[in-house]
Write a structure and sequence with these properties.
Layout lengths: L1 H12 L18 E4 L3 E3 L4 E4 L7 E6 L1 E3 L8 E11 L2 E12 L10 E6 L2 E8 L8 E12 L3 E11 L8 E14 L3 H22 L2
Antiparallel strand pairs: 1-6, 2-5, 3-4, 4-12, 6-11, 7-10, 7-12, 8-9, 8-11
Helix pairs in contact: 1-2
């Protein structure tokens, strides 16, 4: 049973994490940038910023808003990356921040995690933000993967106004962890072969 548990553990741990999830390369290696409908991002890339409140580190930076004003329709941009996941339950964590612009602003940024284009969890709204003020929050969202395969993860900021006198948004320390993973049939077959080989070896030793 210990061998079976080890083999299944190795199968679950084979899941790859986000490439450059802490943006330590100093750029967006591993990530793709995108715009939402009517969205604009006037300041992309990676910069040093204190996203957590415990000291500056490299973080993705966006300054977003609508390309053409449309009342009540937030727009903006995001970064995305795809992962190959086994069926199971996973948790995505990270840190986000909003830095106020040159004057007080009613929209510090609306953050949303999307998986394959569908929102996961509750969007976080920074709301009203004071000039040059910094607001920070850590997020944690759990979701289910019913079928193994490639899943696209979007980390998105939007605002319901034009990108003028606009707060800057940051995201850092993006990680994924497995809560529970269902091994694929091939992994179970491998585990079965391993156990069969061990049992056969023990029988040969006992027959000596």
């Amino acid at each position: 049973m210990k061998i079976l548990a080890l083999l299944l553990s190795l199968s679950a741990s084979a899941m790859a994490g986000f490439v450059n999830g802490d943006f330590s390369t100093g750029d967006l290696t591993g990530w793709s940038q995108y715009l939402t409908a009517n969205g604009v991002n006037t300041l992309g890339g990676v910069t040093s910023f204190d996203t957590t409140g415990s000291g500056a580190s490299l973080a993705a930076r966006l300054r977003v808003g609508q390309s053409v004003f449309s009342a009540g329709n937030p727009a903006g941009a995001g970064i995305r990356q795809s992962l190959n996941l086994l069926p199971g339950t996973y948790t995505i964590t990270g840190d986000i921040a909003s830095l106020g612009g040159t004057a007080d602003n009613f929209a510090g940024g609306l953050f949303q995690l999307l998986v394959n284009g569908s929102p996961v969890g509750t969007a976080f709204d920074f709301g009203f933000i004071v000039e040059d003020d910094t607001e920070r929050v850590s997020f944690s969202e759990t979701f289910n993967v019913p079928v193994g395969g490639v899943y696209q993860f979007d980390f998105q900021f939007t605002r319901p106004y034009l990108a003028s006198n606009t707060p800057t948004n940051f995201i850092d320390n993006i990680e994924i962890s497995s809560v529970s993973v269902v091994p694929e049939p091939a992994s179970l077959a491998l585990a079965g072969l391993g156990i069969t080989a061990i049992v056969a070896a023990r029988r040969r030793r006992a027959g000596r």
